[in-house]
Design brief:
By secondary structure, the chain is of the alpha/beta class. It is built from 13 helices and eight strands. The longest helix is centred in the middle third of the chain and has 23 residues. The C terminus is likely disordered. Bound molecules: NADP nicotinamide-adenine-dinucleotide phosphate.
Length: 366
């Protein structure tokens, strides 16, 4: 089956997801708890369940101080995470007790993403690593209050806003690499499904909607294609002249038994739970890979890599296309400028200007 059909529908996505996991069963991500992160601050979105929860627990065991952000991030999540870490006995043996904080954040709201960055600035946090893990599969098209497709906003638009605002606000300092030899790092959780995205529209990349349950997996693939193209462009723009100032890594964790199908209709839930239980592994192995990408010194002087499960791969050709990357950046920044006029997001620096960190913003190619 060609790559662009493999994950185009729910059934083929399940079948190919199982096949991918089976093929990679003997390849293990490095289990290096020696990749310590003691004292470094790390931000992770979507740590309340699934892959994010397991990744957060590993990062804590490696000594990272952590901020978790998602809709249900609060004291109960912090309690569950502490329990999970103690269960694994990592913190006690390492002799450090990392700090954990939670900031409730809804990625379906640009205002909420802005509020997250404002709160991080207020707390004076400087992040060595940010894991953009939160994601959703919507069972049908829904509009957010900002006027975008909800799944597109959660999976792509909010990640673009959060990533660029973290740099502009100084919460992620791109000049740090010169000081300590380790550039700040962004790890994005995308999906192999991006290869099965429909063709990109001639006009207005961000204007999608009107799909029902049968097409929702294809539009999930589209949102992940935009995310995967964005991360390539982000890496290009923030690392001019082949100098690594920000390590940008993107990965697909493979099919896992998590809450990702939680928006499917209630009548299908028993069947979905059965399939997940019988066919898919839990998120622990993939979380080890995310934690490796977040903490390994191997990636200190590189950027722009893409991984599937534990292996390096090329993105889909569309996600590597610099023309599409530049167009996506331009259209998204145009949308944010419009939102800034309405007071929903902070005014964007003009395109092709330099940010506070001295990084060229906006498309290099016009
Ligand atoms: N499971 C798979 O087979 C699979 C395969 C490929 C890629 N992925 C990707 O893996 C990542 C993690 O997903 P998962 O499988 O672990 O699913 P999950 O168990 O459903 O976890 C998703 C996380 O995202 C957060 N989230 C969802 N909507 C949000 C919103 N509007 N605002 C803020 N946070 C939101 C949730 O937190 P709250 O509910 O607290 O908001 C939750 O912690 C996603 O990016 C997904 O696309 C998963």
């Amino acid at each position: 089956m060609s790559d662009n059909r493999r994950y185009a529908g729910a059934l083929s996505a399940i079948a190919n997801g199982i096949a991918d996991v089976w093929r990679s069963r003997r390849v293990q991500p490095p289990e290096l708890d020696s990749e310590r992160m003691d004292g470094s601050w790390c931000l992770i979105t979507g740590a309340s369940s699934g892959l994010g929860f397991e990744t957060a627990a590993i990062l804590l065991r490696r000594g990272a101080n952590l901020i978790v952000a998602s809709r249900s991030a609060g004291p109960e999540l912090l309690r569950r995470l502490r329990e999970r870490v103690v269960e694994a006995e990592g913190v006690r043996s390492a002799g450090t007790t990392p700090e954990i904080e939670a900031i409730p954040t809804d990625l379906a709201s640009l205002e909420s993403v802005e509020a997250l960055v404002t709160e991080l600035e207020r707390r004076g946090r400087r992040f060595a690593v940010v894991v953009f893990n939160a994601g959703a599969v919507a069972s049908r098209a829904r509009r957010t209050q900002d006027g975008f497709d909800e799944m597109l906003q959660i999976n792509y638009l909010s990640n673009h806003l959060l990533a660029t605002r973290l740099v502009e606000s100084g919460c992620v300092d791109l000049s740090a690499s010169a000081a300590n030899g380790r550039p700040a790092r962004f790890v994005f959780v995308s999906s192999e499904a991006h290869r099965s995205s429909p063709d990109v529209p001639e006009t207005d990349l961000l204007d999608i909607g009107g799909y029902g349950m049968r097409e929702s997996v294809r539009w999930y693939a589209y949102s992940k294609l935009l995310l995967t193209a964005f991360t390539e462009e982000l890496s290009r723009l923030y690392n001019p002249n082949d100098e690594t100032r920000l390590t940008v890594l993107t990965m697909c964790p493979g099919a896992m038994r998590t809450g990702i199908a939680g928006d499917a209709p209630g009548i299908l839930q028993p069947l979905i739970r059965l399939v997940l239980r019988l066919a898919f592994p839990g998120p622990e192995k993939s979380a080890r890979m995310v934690a490796h990408l977040a903490s390994s010194p191997r990636f200190n002087s590189t950027s722009g890599l893409y991984f599937h499960l534990s292996s390096r791969k090329e993105r889909d050709a569309r996600a590597r296309d610099p023309e599409l990357g530049a167009r996506l950046w331009r259209e998204t920044e145009g949308v944010f400028a419009d939102q800034a006029d309405r007071g929903r997001v902070t005014a964007r620096p003009p395109l092709s200007s330099f940010s506070r960190n001295g990084v060229l913003r906006g498309p290099l190619r016009t």
